[in-house]
């Protein structure tokens, strides 16, 4: 593979495959799907996304400005908006969602004539297997709990938003939706829209798309006043549509073979350490499954910068390329320049097989973030 490493590569053909699945849900369920920029924000592919999706959802001003690059719906939610940013957020957004009644009362007069106003509520249903990614965990700061809900403050509120899932199947949404309606169903008769949030792994193998469509249609039948139902997946948009290419820089033996790569779990794929998880490597097996086993280590000075253990049919050599699968989502938006390591380039693989390097990073990018 003739790519300068490290590099993220997004394949248009695989990305469009995901988008077609999402578009099917939109058409058959009568809902709108937004790309969550916190999970997938490669704006070089926005032309393709715009053909299929209704818009984008942002987590604050800068993401909203990124979403504004296309003439689609921009929905913005933040745990707390800043005084000097709320006006610009309202100017950009189709919908602004507040996380508390404090924020609603503080800013609703500045938003109500520019954008629709929503409230994020906490459905109280924990289903995420990782507490770090559970918005319904005890003492969560995300979403208004039923105990704190103020029915007398809804004059300017046209919709409710809940988000409780993380990389989950349709069965998790069934439980969450049941909890949401149990707590907040009495308020839905006065709403114009509802947002089911993200975390729906709609494009993953084994996801029951028909069941999702059924749930949305039945929800709309129960609440005929609801004009729009939104979903805002990030991962489902870019799931398995991209990978990270790295190069073996050195191989050492400190009790086992260790291959040091020109990438990093800490800097370039931080969820490997945060969740944690072991990303799949193309052509590799589990440790001991194949003849030659290696531990992949990053090039930072962090002792724990270890990606995982992998086995191969043939021994690795310095200069070999290694491909980490499913790296178009979260990894790209969460990476850092820790230790001054070069950020991976961003490459789009066109449907005709050609490669388009949309961005390379240089020393100046690292320097200018620091002072």
Automatic annotation (TrEMBL):
Catalytic activity field: carboxynorspermidine + H(+) = norspermidine + CO2; carboxyspermidine + H(+) = spermidine + CO2
Keywords: Decarboxylase, Lyase, Pyridoxal phosphate, Spermidine biosynthesis
GO biological-process terms attached to the record: lysine biosynthetic process via diaminopimelate; nor-spermidine biosynthetic process; spermidine biosynthetic process
GO MF annotation list: diaminopimelate decarboxylase activity
Record domain Orn/DAP/Arg decarboxylase 2 C-terminal: where: 131-327
Keyword Nuclease: no
Requisite cofactors: pyridoxal 5'-phosphate
UniProt EC number: 4.1.1.96
Principal EC category: lyase
Keyword NAD: no
Name listed for the protein in its UniProt record: Carboxynorspermidine/carboxyspermidine decarboxylase
Organism lineage: Bacteria, Pseudomonadati, Campylobacterota, Epsilonproteobacteria, Nautiliales
Gene: nspC
